Amino acid sequence: MFTDTILYCGKSDSTKLNLDEIRVKLTDEQLKEKYYREDKKGRYYDGPIVSSMSMGPRPTLVYKYKGYTPPISGWRVTKENLEEIDRTGDLGWTTNGKPFRKLRIEDDNGQPVGSIWSDISLINSQAAERLAYPTQKPEALLARIIKASSNEGDLVADFFCGSGTTAAVAEKLGRKWIATDLGKFGIHTTRKRLIQVQRELKVSGRLFRAFEVLNLGRYERQAYLNVSGRLTGKKKEDALAKKEAEFRELILKAYRAEPLPDTGFFHGKNSGRLVVVGPINLPVGRLFIEEVITECRKRGASRADVLAFEFEMGLFPAVLEEAKQKGIDLAPKTIPPEVFDKRAVEKGQVRFHDVAYIEVTPRFDRKDKLALAVELTDFSVYYSQGLVESIAAELKEGKSEVVCEAGKLIKISKDKQGVVSREVLTKKWTDWVDYWAVDFNYESRKEIIKVQHGTGLGGVQGFLPGQEPDQRELELAADDFEERWTGAYIFENEWQSFRTRQNRDLELNPPPTATTNRVATSSPSKSSTSSATTP
């Protein structure tokens, strides 16, 4: 027999498991064996109604009932409760005149769970919860663990969420949750699963909460910016500033931009264009882009490149058009992970790509107020034409890479014999979309953050955005912070569809349950979609 081990850890000895919450139900055969007696009311077994002597004297519960007086340990219940037990037919007497309580089969709450859990089955091929995810665990297993180790309203975290079983079960059990995973497929699977949980809870009339998906893949950045934990105050601030300068220098070098000598807003220039590196640990948002436009106008510049790891969803193409109207040609570029590979930087192999985006227009059905169609009116994907030959030359045998050439996505593959082949992936417009989701009431929830009084949106002055110390380290009271709107909105995933490597199909029509009571209350300005392209 193969087994896994579940380790339980607590902060102190006072931490206890809720073992009564995970009692195991007895089988019919076990119940029949346990409740071996029977009367007119049903099956039962003899239980104690008089306290044992080991419980000590209980003088207030020593009283005479139907001619019987218990020892100094007393009855287990008050006289009023004892009379009620007798009235309902649950008080019995032995042939020698001693009382007992009839414990009924319908009141059985199972037996304590043991250390070997053999009552939870694996997920079979026909199970409704099966998602065909390699590491998926049964919901019954996670339900037992969560019930035993938390209470309703507690926070449950799973940092390797996989198919999202922990988050789905936590939501069903009324717990708050945090789920993380390095794999994009795991996040997509979890997101879709949680939306289905929301639908099920809604249909059953139970409350459910919206959730937010955050892209926090900044591990390389955090590692690069890490400074000694022993530094405090001004020394730590100076160390972080130095790290930040080195980091931006690395990015400018990878972008082949010439650093600017001054310490102004822009960090470099490239082919007659100003270059600015966005916040290292925060997505570039509307406020930052507006600042870029303002700085360009101050300098009399008309062209600028914005380099960032992430851009706020819904930012493009609107802000690009606004910049164009003000005489500014903005080019947002995504910083690739290869910037952390010094050899790739030295060889000039790091490629910065244009930001992919789509523009959609909602189309309402005049006959059906609950029907909504979304028309793709414009879209843009990164453009790598001119690099195809170098990519093919650098490609290792047995590997492949997707590039954009002449308005098409092309998969370049090199077999083990070194033969390069090309496959066009975008044969129709839907091939450009790998994932899309809908928030039927976008802009209904603003993104609010807490910052120290007198600081910008990045948080505490003197620290890099996203690298601020916690409140305890700063020794600041709660009154020293204020809530501010970042200018962004929380995108609530109310419906989605996505492709996988195994299944390339993409559902284009959301089911009726996804739109009920949602689209009817939304307007064109408050309906939003999100998509990601194949690259």
Features:
6-stranded mixed sheet; 4-stranded antiparallel sheet; disordered C terminus; 22 strands; elongated; 13 helices; alpha+beta; single chain; 535 residues
Plain-language structure description:
With 535 residues, the chain is α+β, with helices and mostly antiparallel strands. 24% of the residues lie in helices and 22% in strands. The strands form 7 sheets. The chain has a 6-stranded mixed β-sheet with strand order 7-8-9-10-11-12, sandwiched between helices. The C terminus is likely disordered.
Produce the secondary structure layout.
Layout lengths: L27 H7 L2 E2 L4 E5 L31 H9 L3 E3 L5 E6 L34 H11 L5 E4 L6 H8 L3 E4 L4 H20 L15 H7 L7 H22 L3 E2 L8 E3 L2 E5 L8 H14 L3 E6 L9 H8 L3 E6 L7 H5 L6 E2 L2 E8 L7 E9 L7 H7 L5 E6 L2 E7 L5 E5 L8 E7 L6 E7 L18 H4 L6 E9 L5 E4 L13 H4 L12 E6 L2
Parallel strand pairs: 5-6, 9-10, 10-11
Antiparallel strand pairs: 1-2, 2-4, 3-4, 7-8, 8-9, 11-12, 13-14, 15-16, 16-17, 18-21, 18-22, 19-20
Helix pairs in contact: 3-4, 4-5
Count of DSSP H/I helices: 13
What is the helix fraction of residues, given as a range? 10-25%
The N- and C-terminal alpha carbons lie at a distance of 45 Å
Strand order of the largest sheet: 7-8-9-10-11-12
Overall body shape: elongated
What's the total count of β strands? 22
Instruction: Point out poorly predicted stretches.
Output: 456-474, 513-535
Strand content: 15-25%
* Largest pleated sheet: 6 strands, mixed
